Amino acid sequence: MSRLAQTAGLTDVQQEILATVRDFVDKEILPVATELEHRDEYPQQIVDGLRELGLFGLMIPEEYGGLGESLLAYALCVEEIARGWMSVSGIINTHFIVAYMLKQHGTQEQKDHFLPRMAAGDIRGAFSMSEPGLGSDVSAITSKAVKDGEEYVLNGQKMWLTNGGTSSLVAVLVRSDEGHPEGSAPHKSMTTFLVEKEPGFGEVRPGLTIPGKIDKMGYKGVDTTELIMDGLRVPADRVLGGVTGRGFYQMMDGVEVGRVNVAARGCGVAQRAFELGVSYAQQRHTFGKPIAQHQAIQFKLAEMATKVEAAHAMMVNAARKKDSGERNDLEAGMAKYLASEYCKEVVEDAFRIHGGYGFSKEYEIERLYREAPMLLIGEGTAEIQKMIIGRRLLEEYRFQG
Fold first, then answer.
1. For 329-352, how does the pLDDT look when each residue is reduced to its tens digit (9 = 90+)?
2. How far is the C-alpha of 218 from the C-alpha of 358, rounded, in Å?
3. Residue 277 and residue 347: Cα distance in Å, rounded?
4. Of 12-16, 199-203, 325-329, 397-401, minimum mean pLDDT range
5. 295-299 long-range contacts, CB within 8 A, separation 24+
6. Is 258 helix (H, G, I), strand (E, B) or coil?
7. Radius of gyration from C-alpha coordinates of the chain
8. Quick one: average pLDDT of 300-325?
C-alpha cells in the first residue's frame, strides 16, 4: 500500500470497501486498461464487476437497496478506480450525480421508482446540461420544454453526455418559461426532466436520438455523445421534484458532487503517474546508475509526490464538507481546480522521466498523458472554478468600510 494519499478517520467498513476496490483495480482494471483504451472499447466486463461489488449503489440509501455510504467513501473509491483507468470512473460518476439529484430533490414516487434499480445497476444514469453553442454559460441554454396537457414536449440539441449511449435514464436541463415570463432571471426558467430511454444509439425512443460516439483524444472506452430531442414527449410526473423552474439549482447541487468526483479522478490519475515515474526512475540507468539517483530526478519526484498529497487532502476536505450538510462550492471548486492542474503537471513530469519511451504506446504513461487534459475541462474549466472561488471569497471576506 502506498504511503501517499492516505485518509484518516475512516470507519472499518469504509476501509474494507476501499481495500476491495483497490484489489479489483490492481487485478481487473490495470492489466487491461491500456489495451481497451487503445481500441476505444467499452469496458463491459469491468463494469459488470463493479456492479457485483455493489458500487452502483454506494451512495444510495439502504432503504432503496444501496450501501448508504458517504460522499467521502465514494470519492475515495473513484480515486482508486481512476488510478486504474479514468474512463471507468466517469461511468460511475454520471450515474451517481443523477442518483444524488434524485435522492436530494426527487419526489417520493421518483425515488421509489428509480433508486432501487439504480442501486442494483439495472438503470444507468447520465446527465445533460451542455449544448453545442454554450460551453460554460449554462444560462444560454436554448433547448426548450413546452407544456401540452399532462406532458411536456422537448426540443433541442445537447452535447457531451458521458454514458449517453449506455445509460437508460438521463437528467436533462432545458428551458421552461411556464410561470416565468420573458425577461426574468434565466436560471429561474430552467427545469430538469428525467428522461427514460433504451440503451444504444440512433432513435432510442420516439423523439429522442443518440448519435454515435464522439471521437476523442483521450477518455476513451466510455461513450460520450450528443442528445437530440425533436418532439420528445415526457410526462409531467418526470419533472425532477415535480415543480418546474428549479432545474438550475438541482443541477448545480449535482455538479458540486461532480466537482469532488473530478478532483478525486485527478488525484487517482496523478497517483498512478507518480507510481509509473518512481518505478521507471529506479529501472532506467544513465551514466552508470539509476536515474532516480540523479538529483534532478529526485527533485522532480519530490514535487510530484507533494502535489499528489496536497490534491488528495483538498479533495477529502471538500467531500467531508458536503457530507456535513454545509455549503461546499468553495471547497469543491478549489479541490477540482488544484487536483486537475496538479494532475496535468504530475503526469507531464512522469512523461518526462520516461524520456523518449513516454511517447511510445507500449508505455502506460502515454495513455495518462492523453487523459489528464479532460480533467481541466470536465465539470467546469479552471477559469470557471476561479470565478466561483473568487466570488465566494469576497462573500466571506467582505470589506467593512
1. 899 999 999 999 999 999 999 999
2. 16
3. 9
4. 397-401
5. 297/353
6. helix
7. 21
8. 96
Contacts 24+ apart (CB under 8 A), 132-138: 132/157, 132/159, 132/226, 136/380, 136/381, 136/383, 136/384, 138/173, 138/187, 138/190, 138/248, 138/251
**Residue 319: which residues within 8 A CB-CB, separation 6 or more?**
70, 71, 72, 74, 75, 260, 264
CA distance 203 to 378: 27
Nearest to 319 by CA among 343, 340, 306, 335: 335
DSSP 170: E
**What is the C-alpha separation between 80 and 330, in angstroms, rounded?**
24
Percent pLDDT > 90 in the chain is 85
Measured CA to CA, the distance from residue 56 to residue 67 in angstroms comes to 9
Between the alpha carbon of residue 360 and those of residues 354, 355, 356, 357, the distances in Å are 10, 10, 7, 5
Taking the C-alpha atoms of residue 220 and residue 59, their distance in angstroms, rounded to an integer, is 26
Q: What is the pLDDT of residues 108-161, one digit of tens each?
A: 999 999 999 999 999 999 999 999 987 777 878 999 999 999 999 999 999 999
**195 three-class SS:** strand
Beta bridge partners of 195: 170
Measured CA to CA, the distance from residue 41 to residue 28 in angstroms comes to 15
Tell me the catalytic residues.
Answer: 379
Give Cβ neighbours of residue 321 (< 8 Å, ≥ 6 apart): 327, 328, 331, 332
Give the closest residue to 58 by CA, choosing from 42, 36, 81: 81
Cell of 172: 436533462
Determine the Cα–Cα distance for residues 118 and 95; give it in Å rounded to an integer. Answer: 8
